[in-house]
Amino acid sequence: MSGASVPYYRLYRPRPVTQEPEEPNHPVMVRMGVDANALKEGGAMGFNLGIEERRWGVSTHFTALTLNTDDGSKGKDHINLADVALTFAPLAGEHGRLRMEAGVAMARAPGITFIGPSLAMSFERCLFGPFDVEGRLQWVPLPHLQLDGQAALAMHLGTLTLRAGWRGLLLDDRGHLDGVVHRDKLGGPFAGIGLHF
Fold first, then answer.
1. What share of the chain is helix, strand, coil (3-state, %, to 5)?
2. Which candidate in 40, 76, 77, 148 could, as Cys together with 138 as Cys, close a disulfide (CB 3.0–4.6 Å)?
3. β-strand 160-172 against 42-52: which pairing, if any?
4. Is 74 exposed, middle or buried (0-12, 13-18, 19+ CB in 10 A)?
5. Is the Cβ–Cβ distance between 181 and 171 less than 8 Å?
6. How many CB atoms lie within 10 A of CB 49?
7. What is the pTM of this model?
8. Taking the alpha carbons of 93, 98, 103, 106 in that order, is the dihedral positive or negative?
9. Alpha carbons 178 and 70: distance in angstroms, whole number
10. How far is residue 72 from each of residues 75, 77, 176, measured CA to CA in Å?
11. In 3D, which of 95, 169, 106, 104 has the Cα closest to residue 133?
């Protein structure tokens, strides 16, 4: 109709709602395990516990060594090793983790106890399927000398972990016990079981 005005209604299109990105969720992870180490000079039993989130965590290790006496006499020498450390993972991802560790270590042998600083590095790397390769190297520079290294292959079965590998250990009292240097070089295979959740 001539002269009539027709109102125009534009189709309303709601603007998309943009969601703020959620903060990444880094749950606390707990790992623990026990292992048995066969040595030419005796044997060892160990326990470890670690609690960590994405980057930071704490870890502790304990090893009880039962060794033949170094002078050839009858009986056994019992040496206990323990450490607790703060850990930081500069590399952490779905397929692996690299940790730096700094803390305090203790070594108790017949007649003497040492307490000193401890530095360590550990890693886990996924190979394929449920299999990982793992390793750890610890250095205690004083008052005694302690070098502890291990490498293992691990298989994850849900929260259960089975591992087997090799451990080498150097203990040197630097002559603090009786003025004579006592040095033990130990090595042998180990196997263990653990939980990870």
1. 0, 70, 30
2. 148
3. unpaired
4. exposed
5. no
6. 15
7. 0.83
8. positive
9. 14
10. 9, 11, 21
11. 95
Q: Phi and psi for 115 in degrees, rounded to 5?
A: -135, 125
Q: How far is CA 30 from CA 43, 51, 57, 92, 194, in A?
A: 27, 5, 10, 15, 11
CA dist., res. 111 & res. 69, Å (int): 14
Please report, in tens digits, the pLDDT of each residue of the chain (197 residues total). 445 554 444 454 555 555 544 545 668 999 999 999 999 889 999 999 999 998 999 999 999 999 988 766 788 999 999 999 999 999 998 889 999 999 999 999 988 999 999 999 999 999 999 999 999 999 999 999 999 999 999 999 999 999 999 999 999 999 998 888 989 999 999 999 999 98
Q: What is the residue whose two structure tokens read 């603007």? A: 15
State the residue for tokens 């039962």.
66
My answer on whether omega of the bond before 143 falls inside 30° of 0, hence cis, is yes
CB 190 within 8 A of CB 162: no
